[in-house]
Structures are given as C-alpha cells and as structure tokens.
C-alpha cells in the first residue's frame, strides 16, 4: 500500500508536553530517540526480549520497541533522562548502580534502572527473588546480575531509610 | 526492523470496531496488547494494511463475578489479572499461569483476549481455558455469539473467529471450593514459550480423584484437552501406575513440532512428565 498518512501525536515525556508528526508504523522507541532526541532508552534486540528500550508509560514498564507511537497518544512517559532527582542529583537507583558497580558496558542500564524504578514503586521492599523475577524482562550480558540486584537492594534501603546490608559472600 | 505501512484506527465501541473490520476486510487486523502482532509485523510476517486498536474501548477491560462464573473482558492485561483479588481467590490457576507468561513488561501489555484469540499453540491461556471449560464471547456483524473454548481452536493460528468478529470476553466457570490445581510449564528460560506444559484442575474425595481435567500447551498445532489422561486417574489415589497411565494417554494425543525447544520425541516425553507433575501438585493442593 502507499505511504500511510502521518498522524499528529502528543504525550508527556519526563514532565514536558511533546508532540510530533509520525507514520502509524513509527515505533515509540524511534519517536523517543529520533524525534525527541532522547537517546537514553536503547535499541537492543528489537524483538521484545532484551528490555534495553524499557520506558515507563502510564505507570507501567513498557518495551518501547513493541509499541507504536500512535498507541502512546496522551500517555505519561518517563525515560532514563527523567529518573534523576529534580535538582539533578542521582536518584537512589542511579546511586545504587554507581555504588554497587551495577553496570559494566552500560548498554542495558537505562532499561534496567527504568524497570527497577517501577518495580520499587510497586514493591518498595522486594526480596532478592522478587528483584530477579521483577527484572526478568531485562537482559544484561556483562554483570551476571549480581551487582544489579545489589544496586536495587541499595536503592530500596536508601528509599526506605533502612540500613543496606550486603549479603555475605 | 520497521513494520510495513498501515493505517491506524482507534474506535471507541465494539460496534464501531466491528464496522471497521467489515469495511476494511481481509487486510485489517484488530490490535490488542500487540505483543504477538507487532513483533510479527516487524519481521514482516504480518503486513496488515489497517490496524484496528481496541485500546479505546472501555467495556473490554473488566473482571467481574457473574453467579458461578468469572467474566473477563478481552483487553484485561496479564498484569491486571495478577493484581485481581477475584482471580487470586476464585481462579488461582489463572494467577499462576499469568505469572508464567513472558516477563513483567510483556505482562503489562499482553491481554487475555489476545492470548486466547491469536491461536498460537505456544500461548499458555488456550490450554488453561480448555481445562477450565471456558466460553468465549464473539461480537460480529450478526451480533453476539458464545463458543466453547473446546470448539474454538482449529489449527495453528486458525480459530472459529469469522471475518469481522472480535473476541470480547472470556467466561470461566469457577472451580469448586477445595479444588486442586497446577500449571506445570517447562521452558528454556524466563519469557520463553513452553517446551511442554500441562494444566490440571481436579477435586479429591476420600483420598481419590473425583473429577479431573487436563490441558496441554504447545504439544500440538493447538492446545489440547487430554480427556483420556484425565479419565485414567479418576477414582485412583494417583499411585505411580495411574500417573504413568495418564502420562501415556496424554502422550498419545501429542504431536509437537520439532524446533529450537527440541525434537518431537523429547517434547512428548516431557509433556507426559508435565502431566504427572501437575497431577501430583494439584492433588496435594486439593482439600
């Protein structure tokens, strides 16, 4: 079929109203990276497996390679660019990933942190098993996940005002 | 990977969606959560000219108890099923199964309607719906009709849905209090389709199996109801011989594909083991 007509979409991204003209087939990740120039969310597998493109949409973690931008009309979206504290300092999760060495190459990190952000909203004090199950949609090929789990535990403790205890080796 | 071009429609009622599907014909597809369809479109294995997004139709998102049945709107997501107290208390096997589907991100988007209507033999809900004796409501140009899940699946990606019809809800009879249940799914990793899976719902009386139904996932072109396997355990204490008989009866109707999950012989072997494990765990959970 011929080139489909472009559609106007508008949504709120990291607190800012944004809009753009997209083809219906434009994936949300492409709209975010190319139209909005927010290149924090990454394109990894493009097949809904790896979670590198994870964003927060209407209070849900979403793989933005598997949503069309037109489906996000009116949505409230947070990307990794919107995760830091309002004053620009690192959020508890970002600090946790830094302190616990929760990344090596860093490719999965924006998706990991954005996913962990929602996980801690839903379950502020997760067990290790709940963390592992909760980030099962995000693949990391470097860390073996150990330090990612620690980073999320660190952040949970900081948010809850409790003491972070590292598991004995 | 960018899908082929299409025109996007977002009707606000089922009637409008049906009208659109009729007008646009074969080249239109309804879009639910999109986590089966959009990946297929990115691979250009699906190239619909029109997508009719059902997300704007409010009535398709609900979980309600209607007498002795639970009615679930087609656009209810797996995540919403998991958050529902009605499901957790009345249909715990549905909770257990939803938790084994894909990963958190996919469960926020994936819907029960899409899962049952797609006709993908790898989807987990069809086998469970057969086990639970569910009905599906379809709405189309000639109004509404109800069809049993057991009559819905005709082949891989072939179902009883007629052109212009939309699956709008799933109605499940609530299993009796004290029933035992289990969904045993073997998969290579989290997020994968089943290498083999079995659902069991049973009741026990005096230490013996009183009623039983068994469903199978990804062990044939469609989900299967393993009637002979269920019959093999009724009246037994689920001793080893009965378990083996049930597994063999279930294997007799399996015809899995050979793929990255293993050759057919391997998957049939495991399919029988899933049946045995599900039976044992369901019996242990029954009161």
Please outline the helices and strands.
The complex is a heterodimer of chains A (169) and B (287).
Chain A (H helix, E strand, L loop, with lengths): L6 E7 L2 E7 L5 H8 L18 E4 L2 E4 L12 E3 L13 H8 L9 H14 L5 H7 L11 H15 L9
Parallel strand pairs in A: 1-5
Antiparallel strand pairs in A: 1-2, 3-4, 3-5
Chain B lengths: L6 E3 L4 H11 L3 E4 L5 H6 L7 E4 L9 E4 L2 E5 L4 H6 L1 H6 L1 H7 L5 H6 L2 H6 L7 H8 L2 E6 L2 E6 L4 E3 L2 E2 L6 E8 L6 E7 L9 E10 L2 E10 L6 E2 L1 H7 L6 H14 L10 H22 L2
Parallel strand pairs in B: 1-3, 2-3
Antiparallel strand pairs in B: 4-5, 5-10, 6-7, 6-10, 8-9, 11-12, 12-13, 13-14
Helix pairs in contact in B: 9-10, 10-11
Give your account of this protein's structure:
The complex is a heterodimer of chains A (169) and B (287). Chain A is of the alpha+beta class and 169 residues long. Helices cover 31% and strands 15% of the residues of chain A. A five-stranded mixed sheet of chain A has the order 2-1-5-3-4, sandwiched between helices. In chain A, helix 2 (92-99) crosses helix 5 (146-160). Chain B has 287 residues and is α+β, with helices and mostly antiparallel strands. In chain B, 34% of the residues lie in helices and 26% in strands. In chain B, helix 9 packs antiparallel against helix 10 and helix 10 packs across helix 11 (264-285). Chain B starts with 6 loop residues before the first strand and ends with a helix. Chain B folds into three domains: 7-53, 2-Layer Sandwich (Uridine Diphospho-n-acetylenolpyruvylglucosamine Reductase, domain 2); 60-173, Uridine Diphospho-n-acetylenolpyruvylglucosamine Reductase, domain 3 (2-Layer Sandwich); 180-285, 2-Layer Sandwich (Enolase-like, domain 1), CATH 3.30.390. Chain B has eleven helices and 14 strands. In chain B, strands 4-5-10-6-7 form a five-stranded antiparallel sheet. A four-stranded antiparallel sheet of chain B has the order 11-12-13-14, sandwiched between helices. At the A-B interface, strand 4 of A face helix 2 and helix 6 of B.
């Amino acid at each position: 079929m011929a080139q489909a007509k472009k559609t106007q979409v508008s949504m709120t991204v990291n607190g800012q109203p944004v809009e753009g003209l997209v083809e219906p087939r434009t994936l949300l990740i492409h709209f975010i990276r190319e139209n909005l120039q927010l290149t924090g969310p990454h394109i990894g597998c493009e097949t809904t497996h790896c979670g590198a493109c994870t964003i927060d949409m209407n209070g849900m973690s979403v793989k933005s390679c598997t949503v069309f931008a037109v489906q996000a009309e009116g949505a409230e979206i947070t990307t990794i660019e919107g995760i830091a504290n309002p004053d620009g300092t690192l959020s508890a999760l970002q600090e946790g990933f830094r302190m616990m060495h929760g990344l090596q190459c860093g490719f999965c990190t924006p998706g990991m942190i954005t996913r962990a952000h929602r996980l801690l909203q839903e379950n502020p004090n997760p067990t290790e098993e709940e963390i592992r199950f909760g980030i099962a949609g995000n693949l990391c090929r470097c860390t073996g996940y150990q330090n990612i789990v620690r980073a999320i535990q660190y952040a949970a403790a900081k948010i809850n005002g409790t003491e972070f205890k590292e598991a004995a080796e | 990977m960018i899908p082929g071009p299409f025109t996007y429609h977002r009707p606000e009622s089922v009637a409008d969606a049906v009208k659109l599907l009729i007008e646009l014909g074969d080249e239109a597809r309804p879009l639910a959560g999109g986590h089966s369809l959009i990946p297929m479109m990115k691979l250009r294995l699906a190239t619909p000219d029109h997508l009719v997004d059902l997300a704007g139709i409010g009535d398709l998102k609900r979980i309600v108890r209607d007498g002795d049945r639970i009615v679930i709107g087609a656009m209810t997501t797996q995540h919403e099923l998991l958050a529902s107290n009605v499901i957790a208390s009345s249909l715990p096997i549905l909770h257990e199964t939803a938790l084994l589907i894909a990963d958190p991100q996919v469960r926020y988007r994936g819907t029960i309607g899409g899962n049952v209507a797609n006709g993908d033999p790898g989807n987990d809900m069809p086998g469970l719906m057969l086990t639970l004796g569910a009905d599906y409501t379809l709405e189309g140009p000639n109004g509404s009709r109800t069809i049993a899940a057991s009559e819905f699946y005709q082949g891989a990606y072939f179902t009883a849905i007629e052109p212009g019809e939309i699956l709008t809800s799933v109605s499940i009879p609530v299993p009796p209090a004290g029933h035992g249940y289990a969904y045993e799914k073997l998969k290579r990793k989290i997020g994968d389709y089943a290498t083999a899976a079995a659902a069991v719902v049973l009741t026990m009386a005096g230490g013996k199996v009183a009623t039983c139904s068994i469903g199978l996932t990804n062990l044939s072109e469609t989900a299967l109801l393993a009637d002979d396997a269920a019959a093999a355990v009724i009246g037994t204490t689920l001793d080893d011989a009965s378990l083996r008989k049930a597994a063999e009866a279930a294997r007799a109707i399996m015809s899995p594909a050979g793929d990255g999950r293993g050759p057919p012989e391997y998957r049939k072997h495991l399919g029988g083991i899933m049946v045995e494990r599900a039976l044992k765990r369901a019996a242990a959970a029954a009161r």
